[in-house]
Amino acid sequence: MQRRRMAGVALGVGLLLGIGACSKNDETRTETSTGPAASGPAMWSNALGADGRQAGWFIGASKTGELVLAGTMEGSVKFGDAGALQAKTKSDIFVAWLGPDGKIKRARRFGDSGRHVPVGMAVDPQGGVVISGLTDGNIDFGGGPLADLGGGDAFVASLGPNGELRFALRAGDATMQNGGEVALAADGSVYWSGSFEGTIDIGGQTLTSAGNSDVFVARIEPTGKVSWAKSLGGTGTESDGSLVIDAKGQILVSGYYEGAPNLGAGALPDTGAADGEMLVALDSTGKVLWSKGAPNKTGFFGFGLHAGENGTFLVGTVAGSIDFLGKTLAAQGGSGEGLGVVQIDSTGKVLRSDVFPVERLGQVYATPLKGGGLVLGGHFQGTIDLGGQKLTSAGEEDLFVAWMNPQGRIERRERLGGKEHERLGDLTVTPDGHVVVTGMFEGTMNLGAGDLVSGKGPDAFVAFLR
After folding, report:
1. Which end of the chain is more exposed for a tag (fewer CB within 10 A), N or C?
2. Residue 369: pLDDT above 60?
3. CB contact at 8 A, 435 and 375
4. d(CA 50, CA 58)
5. Model pTM?
6. How far from 110 is each of 95, 137, 161, 457, CA to CA, in Å?
C-alpha cells in the first residue's frame, strides 16, 4: 500500500531492502550496460553495488534531462566518474546526478550515526533537489550536524544542482516523527508533509498532536524559513501518505485516519472500529478548503497522489471492496487485490476509476504525462492484467511499467526483471518522454541493455527505457 511506505520507514531499511542476500561477489563497483535490447526495453541501465545493501528510492529529471537519483547505501559504493563514497552507517542516504546517457556526474552521501531513509523527493528545473525522510541518529547535509532529538526525527533538506546545501531542517522530540513527501511550488517554496507524535518544532512553529499521532503540513521559503506549519488530526491516529500541488495550485494531502476528525472543513465519515483514507485540500496559506474520507470497513485503497494536467491521479492497492468518494472500488479475482487508478478534479469529484486484477501487488508508483496520460509502475508476483493483456512474473517479484492514454486505456505494458527479487522504488519521465525507473534487485537482471549482477546484498539500479 502506498500509505504504508513510511510504516517500514519507522526503522527504515526493512521496507524496501528486507530480502535475503545473495552471494555473487564482494567488490565495490558500478555496472553500466548499454548494449542492444536482449530481454527488455532499456536503452541503458546501471547497477550500484557493494558488500552491503543498496536501493534506489527516488528518481527525478530536470528541464535539461539531467537525472537525480536518491537512495540508501551501505559500505563503499563507486558512483562512476564521481568516485567512491563510503557509508558511515547501515543506511546512509546518497544523491547522484546522472546525464541522459546514464553517466554519473556528481554524488553526495549523508549520514553520521544511526539510520537514515528518504521518504520524499522533488527536483527543480535546474537539477536542485529537496529530500525529506526519517533520521535516527546524526546527519550533516553540509551545514553542520543535525543532532538526534530522540526517537526517530523528521528531516527536510534542499540541495543545489551541484549538491551544495541550501537549507536543512530537523524536527522531532522523544517520540516518533516521520518526514513525508515534498512538493515544489513555482516560486521555489517547498511544501512538506509528515506525521508526528507529541510536540514538534518545525522551524520555530510548534505543533502538538491532538491524539496518538497527527499529520503536519508546512510551507518553507527557498531560504529555509518556515512560513507556516499546521497539524491535521483528531483524538485517534492520523498519518500522512502523499502530497502534491494540483493544476489549480491546491496542496493535496492524503493519509489515513481514525474516528471522525474535523480537519477544518467538517467531520470526516466515522470509521468506527476501523480506519479510513483521507484526502485534504489546502490553499497556499494553509487554509483547509475541503476534505474527504473513506472508511476502510470492507476493504481499503492505499494510494499515492500524482498531479496531472486534467486532474489528480490516485494510484495504489485496492483490497476487498471500498466505497471511495462515491465510487465502488473492488478487487477482482481470488487474490482480493487490485491496482487502483482514480482520477479526481479540483473539488475531489471522481472523474474516472479503474481496478486492474493482480495476484500479488507490491508498491505502486506513477507519473503523469503531457496531454493527460499516465505511466504506472510497481512490482508484482504472479500475474497482473493491464487492460486485457496479462504480464506474468518470471520468478519472485518482477517489475511492471504501463502507459495509459488520457482516456484511461493501457496502450503499452512491459515486464522487467530476472528470476529473483526486483522491487521498484520510483519512476519519472524525462522532458523528451522517456521513462526512467529505479529500485533494487538480486541476482542477475537484464532490462534490455545487458546483464546487471548484484553483489553480496541487494543492489540499486537505474534504467532508461525506450
Report:
1. C
2. yes
3. yes
4. 19
5. 0.92
6. 9, 11, 16, 20
